[in-house]
Amino acid sequence: MTQEEILQALVTTKMPFGKYKDTLICNLPEAYLIWFHQQGFPKSKLGMLLGTMYEIKLNGLEYLLQPLRNKTAR
Fold first, then answer.
1. Distance between CA atoms of 62 and 44, rounded to whole angstroms?
2. Residues 41 and 48: beta-carbon distance below 8 Å
3. How confident is the model at residue 1 (pLDDT cuts 50, 70, 90)?
4. Distance CA 15, CA 64 (A)
5. How many other C-beta atoms can be found within 10 angstroms of the C-beta atom of residue 27?
6. Which of 33, 44, 64, 73 could, after both became Cys, cross-link 54 (CB 3.0–4.6 A)?
7. Which Pfam family, any one, appears in the UniProt record (predicted)?
8. What is the enclosing helix (H) or strand (E) of 57?
9. What is the pLDDT of residues 45-62, one digit of tens each?
10. What is the CA radius of gyration of the chain?
11. What is the pLDDT of residue 69?
12. By C-alpha distance, which of 45, 39, 43 is closest to 13?
């Protein structure tokens, strides 16, 4: 996946299971992402997306997703 595809997936992919099932990856609480980081992300596309979102939130880069959120909300 390209960087653009990854960022787009963060604002369109929903969590498929658990407490936050059906929540967009970009809307997952930071505490949940930290918990996943401590447990280990799944070895899958979902794990890659969760890890990417963790890094984005950790570094205060959520603003990068705002233009994509606006585009998908139309």
1. 22
2. yes
3. confident
4. 20
5. 14
6. 33
7. QSregVF_b
8. helix 45-58
9. 999 999 999 999 999 999
10. 12
11. 82
12. 45
CB 23 within 8 A of CB 31: no
Q: Is the pLDDT of residue 71 over 70?
A: yes
- CA 29, 34, 39, 41 torsion-angle sign: positive
Asked if the model's pLDDT at residue 74 lies above 60, the reply is no
pLDDT of residue 15: 97
CB 35 within 8 Å of CB 50: no
- Other residues' Cβ atoms within 10 Å of the Cβ of residue 26: 21
Are the C-beta atoms of residues 68 and 9 closer than 8 Å to each other? no
The mean pLDDT of the chain is 93
**Which of 49, 71, 14 lies closest to 41, judged by CA?**
49
The token duo for 1 is 């996946």
